[in-house]
Amino acid sequence: MFKKILIANRGEIACRVIKSAQRMGIKTVAIYSDADRNALHVKMADEAVHIGPPAANQSYIVIEKVMEAVRQTGAEAVHPGYGFLSENSKFAEALAAENVAFIGPPVGAIESMGDKITSKKIAQEADVSTVPGYMGLIDDADDAVKISNQVGYPVMIKASAGGGGKGMRIAWNDEEAREGFQSSKNEAANSFGDDRIFIEKFVTQPRHIEIQVLADAHGNAVYLGERECSIQRRNQKVIEEAPSPFLDEATRKAMGEQAVALAQAVGYTSAGTVEFIVDGSKNFYFLEMNTRLQVEHPVTELITDVDLVEQMIRVANGEKLTITQDDVKLNGWAIESRLYAEDPYRNFLPSIGRLTTYRPPEEIATDTLAVRNDTGVFDGGEISMYYDPMIAKLCTWAPTRAEAIEGMRNALDSFEVEGIGHNLPFLSAVMDHPKFTSGEMTTAFIGEEYPDGFEGVALDEDALKRIAASAAAMYRVAEIRRTRVSGRMDNHERKVGGEWVVSLQDQEYHVTIEADQDGSTVYFDDGRTHRVSSDWTPGDSLATMSVDGSPLVLKTGKIPNGFRIRSRGADLKVHVRTPRQAELAKLMPEKLPPDTSKMLLCPMPGLVVTLNVEVGDEVQEGQSLCTIEAMKMENILRAEKKGVVSKINAAAGDSLAVDEVIMEFE
Fold first, then answer.
1. pTM
2. Hey, is 212 helix, strand or coil?
3. Pseudo-torsion of CA 107, 109, 111, 112, nearest 10°?
4. Hey, is 396 helix, strand or coil?
5. If we measure between CA atoms, which residue out of 509, 521, 506, 504 comes closest to residue 579?
6. Which of 228, 288, 336, 479 is catalytic?
7. Bridge partners, residue 7, by sequence
8. Rounded distance, CA 178 to CA 172, Å?
9. Residue 301, SS3 per DSSP
10. Is 288 a catalytic residue?
11. Exposure b/e, 404-442, CB count within 10 A at least 16 = b
């Protein structure tokens, strides 16, 4: 077995690989850029080598810099993780030339299947059903428009060397095809060092289902079930699960056998993933093969009890697979939620900064519930603008899908992240959405259910009253403590009243509390009653309540006369007042936000790539105004209404902060 391996990656996947290597007794080497000097993967590894500036195209994807780190440390093998150099055949060749093992597939398989155009041609030759499209290279934007019309809108514009949603756009007309081609080309060049683009028909209302395959160099190959990846935004997966709630055993078997046959046809070894789109009648079409470990591999590991990273290392070491297809059993259900540094209330635009609080839920593994959190950050760490915005992958496992979802709900509510924008509220909202809980979702889920973006969750009456009862009981405890600390009252508990008015989400509840040693009984004026108990103490940022015997997890923060409470995707200001205070509060004037309707604000920290208008230009609603790049993604900012540009405050190449004014209108 290898004595030392280098991980040619960063963040959570580097940490994930290090964990398996440590369990196997293998020493690890991390590489890092200037931006990652204090990163978690650097701290976890046995050794670490600096390889350059923050930009990936000056550090992590520069083959010679990675090779120098290999030589310097004497690593016998390299695991590429995903993204960066993971599907770069030249990197695999460079390793082979120096007799260093590549923990991945052979060069030939990378070249034939890692390239999206070539893989489709091979699939077609093997009589695998593929999506219609143009598999040749595209010269320029005009050529892209011409081909898009030939294929027929809508079309998917994709980077040939792409993955992870980078270099992908959907175009519904000529203008979007022209813009999408250039943006995809730019992103592909920046992320993969390869700007080749191809176009295929975009199939509406599909499900995205992928098969995990594992093969050795001795002719053995198995498939480890499927993953449902239909909850996507901007072609980036957000929530994945295994198995799929849609497939039946016959379809699973057919897809699995086809995936294995395709892998064996190209001499594939190591872990890989064959992606399909599946229509409502369970017809499936080959989409692409990812010749690497997938981001969402933990859900497969949880339902099969197979450590895919360990298997990749063993295959690279020349070992035979120790499992056959008959040994593969799918046990229970697993769900993965990707926690991203992005603001769901700003159309999911990237967010950067310091994690002032980062406290994930406790990882557990029992016969009825498992909670796993794969991460590459830590409390107080920095989220950089240079890399993918994913912070962590939170996974739950349980015997049934419903139990796995409930476990995820509680885990998300227990996940504390402060200092940056993040998508925890959105993930919680999806866990309660009827289409998701029923399993009736497609890749159009987010676009259909949140067409105007995510604006938070409006809780129903039952949930509001559970929170109101909890907040009232918590506030009473806080008031008792405050009077005790002040020293003003000898018999403080008697002086704290039992009647309160709780206001939240435009609702107002008059409650009366009767407390005892075991908790509080909260009476509502409509006759409803809740029994509340908890070990919460004032100042705790997480409150694990029991309401009528059922758990309720609340993230809490202090505000005047109450709490900021976040639960199940809702972000609430909960005020708890005496009846007299509630009367006076209604007389207070409402503070209005400043008028920014005549300004274009930068929605996220990023770099100005292009400005498409000049002072004096008349712009129309929906017209492209400028392009901002952040976290390897280009974002086109468009006019919200008709107007005339009166002032431009930025230039191409400028780095802007969030809410910085880019331009103003008359």
1. 0.83
2. strand
3. 160
4. strand
5. 509
6. 288
7. 30, 79
8. 11
9. helix
10. yes
11. bbbbbbbbbbbbbbebbbbbbbbbbbbbbbeebbeeebb
Mean pLDDT by 10 residues, the chain (666 residues): 98 98 98 96 98 95 98 98 94 97 96 81 80 82 95 90 79 94 89 86 86 97 97 90 96 94 93 92 89 97 98 98 96 98 84 92 97 96 88 98 97 95 96 96 91 91 97 93 63 69 96 94 96 94 96 94 95 95 88 85 89 94 90 83 94 91 95
**Angle, in degrees to the nearest 10, between helices 424-431 and 401-414:** 150
Q: What domains can you pick out in the chain, each with its CATH number?
A: 4-103 (3.40.50.20), 132-201 (3.30.1490.20), 461-585 (3.30.700.30), 599-665 (2.40.50.100)
Determine the residue type at 442: T
Cα 302 to Cα 300: distance, rounded to the nearest angstrom: 5
Distance CA(220)–CA(315), nearest Å, equals 11
Q: Is 312 exposed, middle or buried (0-12, 13-18, 19+ CB in 10 A)?
A: buried
* Rounded-to-5 percentages of helix, strand, coil across the chain: 30, 35, 35
**Strand ranges (E), 361-424:** 364-365, 370-375, 382-383, 390-398, 416-418
Q: How many CB atoms lie within 10 A of CB 66?
A: 25
Largest distance between two CA atoms of the chain? 87
Strand partners, 359: 416
Rounded to whole angstroms, the Cα distance separating 636 from 181 reads: 13
Q: State the helix-helix crossing angle for 308-316 and 11-23, rounded to 10 degrees.
A: 70
